[in-house]
Amino acid sequence: MVNLTLLFLLLALCVASTVQRNLELEEDANVQQNLAQDLQIVHYQPEQVHLAFGDSLQDIVVTWSTRSSTNQSIVNFAQDYVHDKLSVISGSWQLFEDGGKQARTQYIHKVTLPALQPGTRYEYSCGSNLGWSAVYSFRTPPAGDKWSPSLAIYGDMGNENAQSLARLQQDTQLGMYDAIIHVGDFAYDMDTDDARVGDEFMRQIETVAAYVPYMVCPGNHEEKYNFSNYRARFNMPGNGDSLWYSFNMGPVHFVSFSTEVYYFINYGMKLLTKQFEWLDQDLAEANLPENRAKRPWIITFGHRPMYCSDDKEYDCNGKLETYIRQGLPTLKWFGLEDLFYKHGVDVEFFAHEHFYTRLWPIYDFKVYNGSAEAPYTNPKAPIQIITGSAGCNENREPFSNNLPDWNAFHSNDYGYTRLKAHNGTHLYFEQVSDDKEGQIVDSFWVIKDKHGAYA
Ligand SMILES: *[C@@H]1O[C@H](CO)[C@@H](O)[C@H](O)[C@H]1NC(C)=O
Ligand SMILES: *[C@@H]1O[C@H](CO)[C@@H](O)[C@H](O)[C@H]1NC(C)=O
Ligand SMILES: *[C@@H]1O[C@H](CO)[C@@H](O)[C@H](O)[C@H]1NC(C)=O
Ligand SMILES: *[C@@H]1O[C@H](CO)[C@@H](O)[C@H](O)[C@H]1NC(C)=O
Ligand SMILES: [Fe+2]
């Protein structure tokens, strides 16, 4: 009798612990199943195709993804894909494993089409013997510095509520741009849902990015797993991991940098110091008389702004101060305002705040107009523009009730900025409102007949 009770008890215990264990394992099992489903299906077809400039504007880098390994990364291209003999170029691929729980993997392929003919339209298809993309096209920029590049520039565009995207897709397909600059914060976020949100974002920008070089810098939304999604998915010029680089385009020297090295110092103080040294050296080189004569304009882009016109902005403390402008707290090391001022940077693009703001020429909270009548003709300090309103699921951000006197213009509309660099003396900017069906809500010229250090 005792034995029977004992047996019964044991049995009950067993069942209970099994139920408990099953509950615990359920989540893991779901994860495993999702993953197995991903793996059972072969994904050899190229997707997420996008372009970037390589080490010169005549080197175009093609990047795409396959979920399964194809062991091959090939681009076929010609001026006329149907009638010409195709050129065939191989590149390399890398296995990218997302840092999420599922450790989802994909193969990211990179091929550089080197030394293309200037001012020429090419058609291309990428992939492997297991699958090819559709045929896309791009146009290489003209040779030399004497041409007038057109760009679209914006930050903070997500997967959800990407309100400007359709207009950008149409503009791009109409051939309006020579390049796009996305000033940080992609997808919201690329790592979300085990990087499925990143995949969908890269697919959604394909109609833009497979046709014109899509140049980028990292924002705070790319932080997860040490910016691994950003570094794996984008191939920018230089031999680094796309955190900072520069490129020359017509009369402009563009400089891309990471504002995030000032905030996520858990990933290494080294990144901050290395970037600062690189910026100093790159800007010094751009200022060599022979270089500045060829490319008088220096335009930088980084994600978080130096000046805040948003009360809620968490990067600005009570005195509206930022690390980017002043450098690290108390120490005041590595501030970028002094560096950019010293090297005569002309225009600085930022994003992060979900609106558009144009500043009067500014240095150390003081406005330095060229003159009262023409503030942007030979300004005595850099001009800053915040363009973070492409559209994302965090919506718009409000302005301060008391706008500072350095605020020249602001708009809460979703939209993006266009730049046409006419020549060495004239830049033209305009702000497109998507809310107002593409209406231009702000436009201005920056005119300079002398470039260089301001002081
Ligand atoms: C790619 O190469 C790996 C290792 O050599 C091999 O296991 C795999 O089957 C290959 N995949 C294809 C699609 O050929
Ligand atoms: C983060 O990545 C960078 C390369 O972009 C590397 O230099 C750094 O050491 C990494 N930091 C950590 C903590 O892994
Ligand atoms: C700069 O120019 C603008 C436009 O003319 C003007 O409103 C502003 O007061 C000027 N600021 C200074 C400090 O001169
Ligand atoms: C530069 O471009 C502006 C605007 O198109 C034009 O008025 C000016 O004449 C140009 N300068 C030169 C030197 O071509
Ligand atoms: Fe941001």
Automatic annotation (TrEMBL):
Residues 151-355 form the Calcineurin-like phosphoesterase domain. It catalyses: a phosphate monoester + H2O = an alcohol + phosphate. It is an enzyme of class 3 (hydrolase). Transmembrane segments: none annotated. Its EC number is 3.1.3.2. Residues 381-443 form the Purple acid phosphatase C-terminal domain. Belongs to the metallophosphoesterase superfamily. Purple acid phosphatase family. This is Purple acid phosphatase. It comes from Drosophila virilis. The gene is Dvir\GJ16401.
